[in-house]
Specification:
The complex is a heterodimer of chains A (303) and B (262).
Chain A (H helix, E strand, L loop, with lengths): L1 H42 L3 E2 L6 E2 L5 H5 L3 H35 L2 H15 L3 H12 L4 H8 L3 H10 L12 H25 L3 H9 L4 H30 L3 H4 L7 H12 L2 H24 L7
Antiparallel strand pairs in A: 1-2
Helix pairs in contact in A: 1-13, 3-8, 3-10, 4-8, 8-10, 9-10, 10-13, 12-13
Chain B lengths: L1 H31 L18 H7 L2 H34 L5 H7 L2 H4 L2 H15 L5 H24 L4 H9 L4 H30 L4 H4 L6 H10 L4 H28 L2
Classes of the chains: A mainly alpha (303), B mainly alpha (262).
């Protein structure tokens, strides 16, 4: 009885010591960060008076409901579609790349590939956006190559005839914007998939092969299910980063607002903070939806 | 066997094509930093010069922006290193039913779009009547820097043989001594790597900074302005190239520190 009380006491002391260590960062992240976040989201309950241009501090759904009206809802749809497309495309590119690194590359080759993918993640984001703008412009490298092979005019015709992907030229089209988004967030998809593939137990793959499965069957039935958590984890980044970006749609791409740009202009030049806050709610809700869907699809079961 | 090697080759071909895609715009920036043409970016460039390097280095506003960026990055990583490390130690060892909620909190600043962090802080600073300046920039940056350091140290914490810590405590060392002589030596390189990555990330951050900086110009904001209102376009390329090389140093160091103890 007595000794268990001492153990309890020692344990309590340990817990308190750990909480003390956690305290400064927790204070920062809850009060400063979460506090600010809730403060911002709260603004979406207010509304902007159309005549006076003043913010009316009256709690209501007026501003949130504005999200569902014509042009605003188009922005939400446009951004969400782009985020989903970019996430799927990133997974399609990243999976074979990660698979090659983990199962086909030698130790040295793997290290080289790993650094080659990791390094550009740390190169200036703006510089990369800028590089693409230069690449995609009418005088740029891509059009130059397309011109040489006679594809520049067909491409422009294509971009003109499909407004969903198109625009005036590659640098002013959704296709161009999609490429830049895909490019920018691809490493965020590759790395978690590599980590997931590395955890696939070799004896499971051996067992599958021993039992007569073809490599493709083994991939479908064993490797891929175990990789899902990695794909989902990478998707959080590709999805969230696309939803919130306000620079890429400004520099590259067809006219038409994205959520991030809308947030930026509404709070800035327009001075409609409530609507900016309402638009900021969209990524949060979509990311929560994404996570719950991933959970339902069993993405985390294999963890 | 034949199809096996064909698949092998196909996979490698694909992988190198993706890597090529990743490096294409970086090469373009490198090439255009030397172009003689300062109006369009026609391909192929009509000629090469190193003139833009001296033009870039002569720009006072560029140096001021760089200096501010370095101050911000240093301060942010100095805040993030102790906070991230201590919370990583605590969260790996804490037995608590709701720990999930706490670990989620520690990824939130990078899992949610940066625009939310930026606007949320801006709103708070306005409410508190804080003038935007270096401190407000640092608060924004330190928030995600804490997460970066935390992630690095957590990965290391999971690999520390905890029996050693218990042995130290059993043998009468106090918490501080145990931290100083047992835990810290294990964490040192991960902590430093996390700090360097935080530094690199802060040096490059623009999404949050545009909201929290007010009239101050960090280097990425300077570059951003140059992109839209270029005075001398190739100068932007030169600065971009130099920033790329500068950022590379802490990242390579961090990578080496991270892998040296494996």
């Amino acid at each position: 009885m007595n000794s268990s009380a001492t153990i309890n006491q020692a344990q309590n002391k340990r817990v308190w010591a750990l909480l003390l260590l956690l305290f400064p960062a927790l204070l920062w992240l809850t009060i400063l960060y979460l506090g600010s976040l809730f403060g911002l989201l709260w603004q979406s309950a207010y509304r902007l008076d159309d005549f006076s241009g003043q913010i009316v501090k009256q709690v209501g759904l007026h501003t949130i409901l504005q999200l569902f009206t014509g042009a605003n809802f188009d922005i939400v749809l446009r951004t969400t579609t782009m985020a989903i497309t970019v996430t799927i495309a990133a997974a399609i590119l990243a999976l074979p790349l990660a698979y090659t690194m983990v199962f086909h590359a030698g130790k040295r080759q793997r290290a080289i590939l790993y650094v080659a993918i990791l390094a550009p993640m740390w190169f200036s984001y703006l510089v990369k956006v800028y590089g693409w703008r230069v690449l995609l412009s009418r005088e740029g490298l891509i059009y130059w190559v397309l011109d040489k092979v006679g594809l520049a005019i067909p491409l422009d015709t294509l971009l003109h005839s499909f407004p969903a992907i198109g625009g005036a030229s590659l640098a002013a089209s959704f296709l161009g914007m999609f490429l830049v988004f895909l490019y920018m967030w691809l490493p965020f998809m590759v790395l978690p998939i590599v980590a997931a593939l590395e955890r696939v137990p070799q004896n499971m793959l051996n067992a599958s092969a021993d039992l007569g499965a073809t490599p493709w069957q083994t991939f479908r039935k064993v490797t891929l299910p175990l990789t899902w958590p990695g794909i989902i984890a990478g998707g959080i980044f590709t999805f969230s980063l696309t939803l919130g970006d306000y620079i890429i749609p400004q520099v590259v791409g067809a006219p038409g607002y994205f959520i991030g740009m809308m947030v930026y202009t509404q709070q800035g030049t327009v001075g409609n903070l409530p609507l900016a806050a309402a638009f900021s709610l969209v990524p949060i809700i979509l990311i929560m939806l994404y996570l719950s869907m991933a959970k339902r699809l069993g993405a985390f079961d294999a963890l | 066997m034949h199809s096996n090697s064909l698949r092998h080759k196909g996979l490698f071909l694909f992988s190198y094509a993706v890597i090529g895609f990743i490096y294409l715009p970086l090469v373009v920036i490198g090439v255009y930093a030397f172009t003689v043409d300062d109006i369009t970016f026609a391909f192929p460039p009509t000629g090469f010069t190193t003139h833009w390097f001296s033009a870039a280095f002569a720009r006072d506003d560029m140096w001021q922006a760089l200096w501010l960026s370095i101050k911000v990055a240093v301060l942010s990583s100095l805040i993030a290193m102790p906070l991230g490390t201590l919370s990583a130690i605590a969260l790996t060892r804490l037995d608590y039913k709701r720990k999930d909620m706490l670990t989620t909190l520690f990824v939130l600043p990078i899992a949610l779009p940066g625009i939310l962090t930026g606007l949320a802080f801006l709103n708070t600073f306005r409410g508190l009547g804080l003038t935007p300046g270096i401190m407000t920039i640092v608060i924004g940056h330190a928030t995600f820097c804490i997460v970066v350091v935390y992630n690095n140290v957590v990965a290391r914490m999971r690999r520390i043989p905890w029996s050693m810590v218990e042995a130290s405590l059993d043998l009468g060392a106090n918490y501080w001594q145990t931290f100083r002589y047992v835990i810290f030596p294990h964490l040192k390189s991960a902590l430093l790597a996390g700090g360097l990555l935080a530094f690199a990330l802060s040096l490059d951050e623009v999404i949050v900074t545009l909201f929290t900086a007010g009239h101050e110009k960090t280097l990425p904001i300077w570059i951003f302005n140059e992109l839209f209102r270029p005075r001398e376009r190739p100068v932007t390329n030169v600065v971009a190239l130099v920033v790329m090389l500068i950022t590379f140093i802490p990242v390579v160091l961090a990578y080496r520190l991270g892998s040296q103890d494996d």
